């Protein structure tokens, strides 16, 4: 019986570490998206100051290619919309991971308590 509780505790601990790793990855993804959002909002702000006479260029590989101003603005708006959608998705993953981590913490504490009680019963019976 003791081995079974020990196995459950080890499994729960491994699961907990995996959940923490998933949370860490989601946090990193969220930070990258925040950086992309800021960058694209800055570009959008710059576009707002353009006159119809201004030319817009897009970096394609090592070459600057002339781009239609309206198309460039539309692309930035689409990118912003996509990034905001991804941020919402990642926020959901973060909440989900945090909930799972809390449940796993509780499970680990319960297993540790049960294991300690079992060990004290075994030592007092001996």
TrEMBL record:
One of its GO terms (cellular component) is prefoldin complex. The keyword Oxidoreductase does not apply. Residues 2-46, 80-121 form a coiled coil. Keywords: Chaperone, Coiled coil. One of its GO terms (biological process) is chaperone-mediated protein complex assembly. The keyword Transmembrane does not apply. Belongs to the prefoldin subunit beta family. This is Prefoldin beta-like protein.
């Amino acid at each position: 019986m003791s081995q079974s509780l020990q196995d459950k505790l080890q499994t729960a601990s491994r699961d907990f570490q995996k959940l923490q790793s998933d949370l860490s990855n989601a946090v990193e993804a969220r930070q990258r998206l925040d950086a992309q959002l800021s960058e694209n909002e800055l570009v959008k702000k710059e576009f707002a100051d353009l006159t119809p006479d201004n030319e817009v260029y897009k970096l394609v590989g090592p070459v600057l290619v002339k781009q239609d101003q309206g198309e460039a603005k539309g692309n930035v708006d689409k990118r912003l919309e996509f990034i905001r959608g991804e941020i919402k998705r990642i926020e959901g993953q973060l909440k989900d991971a945090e909930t799972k981590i809390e449940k796993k913490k509780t499970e680990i504490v319960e297993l540790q308590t049960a294991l300690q009680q079992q060990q004290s019963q075994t030592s007092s019976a001996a």
